Amino acid sequence: MQGTPSPPPKTYRKTPLSKNRTIKLYPNQQLSWCYRTVIARAKQLIVKKRVDFMAIEYQRMMDGSHAPDEKEITEFIGEPANGAWMKLRQFLRENYDIVPEMMFDKKHGWDVRYRKSGKTLVALTPEKGAVRVLIVLGREESEKALSMRKELSPKMYRLIENTKQLHDGRWLWARLLQTKDAEDIEKLLPIKRKPKKPTPKSSVLRE
User: Fold this and answer.
1) Closest to 182 measured CA to CA, from 127, 131, 111, 135
2) Bigger pLDDT: 51 vs 62
3) Residue 155 domain boundaries
4) Which of 125, 139, 154, 167 could form a disulfide with 132 if both were Cys (CB 3.0 to 4.6 A apart)?
């Protein structure tokens, strides 16, 4: 009597979960509740990582005995982030009559703050390889920012969405790593304070 033939070997399909981990599934097997939970959690972590600009600590200018000049700051930041620093500083210089203040804090090091009438428009902190930016939006300002989904980058919009509105404002901590990152800040600043009117070009009289 012939024995029962052994079943064919089972094949597996590997489904990537991360760079170093995989989960094996039988062909056409429905995702279990546990697996769906793992995938959902992984997506949450991915979104959080994209939104959390401040997840990694960067080196800052911590020598309080010496206030750095512009050249020292740009050299400390380095490429390509110093492009964002220069672009944002130029935007502020051209659009706001505010004299920037160099401020030192033992915890955060040197930063440049733009304040007028006791209210801070924005604070810029030079970091090694980055520029840290702080903008605090009031409730009405936050509503305006949230209406700019099409104008802001997805990363910046998620930051605004996921930052809690406190009684003293919505504290947006952003980190700029390249020149293009400064564009979001330039779009948010007019919400805080209207830019100055451009100087009209003098007309040329023709004889």
Assistant:
1) 131
2) 62
3) 70-192
4) 125
